[in-house]
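Here is the promised in-class demo. Please do not try to memorize the tokens; focus on the logic of going from shape to residues.
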């Protein structure tokens, strides 16, 4: 899963020109190699289920907490499927969010709102809007797919004592809320340690930090804390995973938009 925040009127903002990324540019080739290696190291997990807490903090430091569960299904040849279900507090209990991520096409996303008792499709033009009032956007909730971006290696850098590759990514989707992302991958395990997001005006928008990594099935690393900080509003969202389970028997039948109202 797990990529925005304020709803931006993309049609009214001038598009910034993306730097020319020649296929034979060594920085482009190296950037693609790094991201592809990171992606290859995280294949074959089949499916997962998790429980987590979401802490929403406003600019004044006030905090509200939500409890939720996620289910994810790895899909060969396309993006992954994900289902998020809110359990607490009562005002969001029963809300369910379904994503069918895609590599080359816009992601399909639906949300069930108990108060309205209906399933709403999330338009691709609204993917930069806030997910359930958090600093994560609908776009951020889709799975990462290599084909969604163009890449350029920037430099090596030490981040909090960790030797990292730094790679810049340019979304190919015209409806993305970002002009670019800058990601720090640790050289030891190719895990994303930090991502900086830049809005459609190329201004610094958000930073996502990953921490509390745990190793599963002798292969897969998962961060048990993810904090998204919005530099433009002073708000932040902290996701803390209490439990992650792998290969629990999920299948396509568990990811059906027609059953969102009954999601458990």
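The designed amino acids, position by position:
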């Amino acid at each position: 899963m797990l990529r925005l925040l304020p709803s931006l009127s993309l049609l009214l903002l001038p598009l910034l020109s993306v730097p020319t990324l020649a296929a034979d540019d060594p920085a482009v080739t190296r950037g693609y190699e790094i991201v592809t290696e990171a992606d290859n190291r995280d294949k074959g997990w089949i499916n997962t289920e998790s429980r987590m807490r979401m802490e929403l903090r406003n600019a004044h430091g006030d905090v509200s907490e939500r409890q939720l569960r996620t289910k994810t299904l790895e899909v060969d040849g396309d993006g992954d499927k994900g289902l998020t279900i809110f359990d607490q507090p009562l005002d969001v209990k029963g809300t369910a969010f379904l994503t069918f991520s895609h590599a080359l096409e816009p992601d399909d996303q639906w949300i069930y709102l108990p108060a309205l008792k209906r399933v709403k499709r999330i338009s691709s033009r609204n993917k930069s809007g806030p997910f359930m009032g958090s600093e994560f956007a609908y776009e951020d909730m889709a799975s990462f797919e290599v084909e969604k971006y163009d890449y350029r290696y920037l430099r090596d850098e030490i981040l909090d004592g960790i030797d990292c590759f730094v790679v810049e990514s340019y979304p190919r989707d015209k409806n993305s809320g970002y002009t670019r992302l800058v990601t720090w991958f640790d050289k030891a395990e190719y895990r994303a340690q930090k991502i900086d997001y830049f809005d459609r005006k190329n201004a610094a928008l958000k930073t996502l930090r990953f921490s509390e990594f745990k190793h599963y099935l002798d292969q897969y690393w998962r961060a048990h804390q993810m904090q998204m900080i919005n530099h433009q509003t002073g708000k932040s969202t902290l996701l803390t995973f209490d439990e992650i389970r792998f290969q629990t028997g999920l299948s396509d039948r568990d990811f059906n938009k027609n059953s969102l109202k009954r999601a458990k």
